[in-house]
Amino acid sequence: MQSSPPSSTQSTPLVIGTRGSPLALAQSKHVRDCLAAVHALAADGIELEVIRTSGDMIRDRPLAEAGGKGLFTKEIEEALIAGAIDLAVHSAKDMPTMLPPGLVIAAVLPREDARDVFISRKAKTLAQLPRGATVGTASLRRQALVKRLRDDLAVVPLRGNVETRLRKLAAGEVDAIVLALAGLKRLGLAGAATTVIPVDDFLPAVGQGIIAIEARGDDERALALLAAVNHADTAAALTAERAFLTPIAGHATVAAGRLRFHGLIAKPDGSDVLETQRQGAVGDAVRLGAEAGRELKQRAGADFFAPV
Questions:
Q1: Cys-Cys crosslink for 215: which of 121, 222, 272, 305, Cβ 3.0 to 4.6 Å?
Q2: pTM (2 decimals)?
Q3: Residue 94 is a catalytic residue
Q4: What sections of 154-207 are H helices per DSSP?
Q5: Which stretches of the chain drop beneath a pLDDT of 70?
Q6: β-sheet bridge partners, residue 88
Q7: 71-114 pLDDT per residue, tens
Q8: Which of 86, 94, 175, 284 is catalytic?
């Protein structure tokens, strides 16, 4: 018979599962510090457990070909289900739409800037790149949006963490890259951005800029601790975005109890783009996101994502 979980981390350390990349560790340390501050706990009573994921191990092909979303969360979620860790810290944009049974997004921290940035030594903006220039990205969303704006550019696969991509750009492997501003800020590298791209020109990925904390749905101890750090407006925005259920881009904002949602789907080559918007009460986040997804799915038809 298993004993009940302790009511605080003082008797048993709280263990956070995380990837080992510099960004993942920075995010997990931020979560640890928030929990320690809110609950007046010693930071050393909250441990970080580094777990290598499938996404970290697959280096020879684009992640979309290997299974896409979930490759950066699978092994961490398995450890959470097994009880080896108490919490899992993720970039929300890496999380699959459907979570494994028994797991929940128990809290999210306030959203960092959700915009993407353009980085290049050859141009100030995407529009100013010379014809035929190469843009490196591992994201189908960024590929589609780059090609939508500049179909003459060559988009090439570029894997690796933020620092690796910046090094590859500096080495001349590509002429430009597009990265999330949130990650650069959390790593203290915001100064690397050449230009911040407006949201309306380059819609972010679902969950971009949000740190999500996953827990077991029946772990009362973890859920109680996390409730105190959850940011309600960010949680509502993420709820709408995840309800959108499309593979390209979705972004929600919340102000004065109202939620605005903008969703987009695009062919990988950027040749066809469909967009929609919704607004309504924060409490209708799921409905707003789901309705937007259904609308675009109906408008797109069955062959929208077929190879061109």
A1: 222
A2: 0.90
A3: yes
A4: 162-170, 181-186
A5: 1-11, 55-69, 307-308
A6: 17, 214
A7: 779 899 999 999 999 999 999 998 988 999 999 999 999 999 99
A8: 94
